[in-house]
Amino acid sequence: MKLGSLRNRGVLQFAAAALIAACAVPLVILADTYDAAEAWWKPGDQRLMPASADYDDPLGRVRILNAAGSVQTKDHPFFTPLGANGRACVSCHQPSNGMGLSAETIRKRWDETGGKDPLFAAIDGSNCPNLPQAERSSHSLLLERGLFRVFQAWPPRGSDGTLIQPEFTIEVVRDPTGCNTDPIYGLNGRSPTISVFRRPRPVANLKYLLELPHGVPPSDFLFYNDKSLLPRNPETGGFASLQLMSDGRDLTPRIQARDAALNHLEAHGALSEKQLSQIESFETQVYSAQSFDKVGGNLTGAGAPPGLGPEALEKGAPARLGNNPINRIFGSFAMWQPVNSAPDAENSDQPQREFRESVARGADVFYLRRFIINDVGKYNDKGLGNPFKRSCGSGCHNTLLMGMDLAPGYMDLGLNNLPWANARPDLPLFKVVCNTDAAPQSYLGRIIYTHDPARALITGKCADVGASMTQQSRSLAARAPYFMNGSAANLRELVDFYDRRFNIGYTEREKVDLVNFLGVL
Amino acid sequence: MAAFALAADPRPGTAVSFLACPIARDTGPDTDLCFFAEYDGVRYALVNPPDWGVPQLKHRVLVEGRVKEGAPYCGAVPIEGRASVIAELDDSCNTLLPFDGIIKGIAGGVFNSGTPQQRALAEDLARRAALDPALSIEPAIAEALPPPPPVPPFERRTLSIMYPFDSDRASGPDMIKLKELALFAKVAGARSVQVIGYRATSRLSDGSNLVERPQMAQARATKIASILAALGVDAKRSQVSWETQTIGGSGEEDWRNRKVEVSVDP
Hints:
heterodimer; A: 521 residues; four-stranded antiparallel sheet; three-stranded antiparallel sheet; 15 helices; 24% helix; disordered N terminus; B: 266 residues; alpha+beta; seven-stranded mixed sheet; 4 helices; 13 strands; 20% helix
């Protein structure tokens, strides 16, 4: 309990801590960081995005680093409305939210605009376009869980446009939004469509997502899951990493931008090559990570753990395994362990010291604390064994500095499929019945109840139902809620999900330490 | 459990082939699980399969191998051979033995895997990172050196890729060999690349037969051929075929018949 209260005490001390931090950062950062009016990047704003800027978030500050230098947003396609609904890319990829979008920010936009912000566009910013758009309840999934509607034609088509024959049938069991049973937008409409609800992924640190993995041969050209070939990047002809999207539907930033412009921005036509290049150039040079903690103080600079802050990400080698005793995924936190963090003239802040020690313990829990990982479809069955015993870091979150799974592969952690998923009466529920000649989902068989078939909506494969790609673990403090369906409202709920799912038995102190550790990434 | 104590361990070289539930055993807080399976009163360690053969609870496992010399592993008789996870769910296979304090695992890690050069580089980095924590975010696992490019004279090369029962998922090590073979075919300007897929029957120790699905030979062959083509092997010079008949089992190393044979003629 003592540790859990650290953050509260830290909030009270924030003013003092902010003053201390202010002395250590350039003025350009201060100008952007503490002007609350500037926190929201409105589509069409003509501003200079600094090479480095810090933004307040619930636990401290997140830093956005433009490695190529400051960005003039005037007429830049990432920042400019490109379609009918007035949104730009920046609408859902806000610098102050680690280039993602938090539910807190969404609610604030609703309150400030009376629901008129383009964020709440009927197409995907509401539970279904057929609902009365002026009512708050019509946007409940976005407001409460940060979820946008992702609508996909069913059955799916391959990247070459050919129809994929699914290995399963799908029916709607429960439809709280009404969209999947709607005669226009639903599964039985003239253009059968499945609507699922997902969080936007952060557009930052992309070099780690786009590079093919090193050190896990033959996964530099094959799926880890089944030793089939990775798809080709149509722009380069090389293999694509598949790390960009949770379901792998868009392979590159350019493809994703084209897709997003049409489906999220309601663009009137295709983006030009120049626009696509501008968006790609911006997205592949922007880095994001937490830079300051309200209790823990500065997270970067002399004496700080070397893996923290976006500067480390900019310099870091992408797509490397970090699950070894040297790298420990996010580098050493030894300097914050008790033996190294004892009070001295420069470090007499006891709450800060205790917090940092908690973070260092959390790093140990993340990297060292093994538990039994069982029944994870597309994971335990890809040659690891069921069960498999690993820690968070040595298991699924093994990528150096980023914490997603390095080898290209999807997994059903239990976020979407019953019985593991959190109770989600707000989400649609589907019943999937797989053909008898199809390979079953390894631990759920051929009849699966799911809130989101995820990867299977792209491949049509029974074994892929509910499986998604792990995502990066940076800037978490700035972009709650977590998981692709927003199941965890905060980091504690995230840790509690894992603890329940895998029966880990974390102690209260371990949970607090893990939360503090994740919060500084 | 008494039955296991009474059964005599089979002699080295004895062939075994059976279907059973795998049993997982926890080997300590810092080490992995191990697996064994029980058949005819004997516990057999599922010790050396390539990646596709690691057993899974909730699935039966087809064990095909020979008893080998050596100390027990996972508290069971070591065998040399293959294990195949059966795809269909079997909820009755769900035994996980807790750590008993006696049968302990061996921790893996960067310092006892990889090539000698990779290990040496990692050890060097560990020493330097102990003094300078900033180095702890330098990649500790160096890239393995690529195999030397093929050089003349070019001669026929072949590769046999083995599979789990009823599966077209090859192992990682075999796929690395396939990649090398594709490079050889390109560099050597192969005039012919032949891919032949097979399916097989496993004869079990109890006299029954386990037959793979009819489409497996084709699925294996076409998957390998598509990978070769994507790796740049000229599809016009490739012949892809598969045997429609299953290869009969003898009860001894029948896993070797579940395969794709690739031959490259320069």
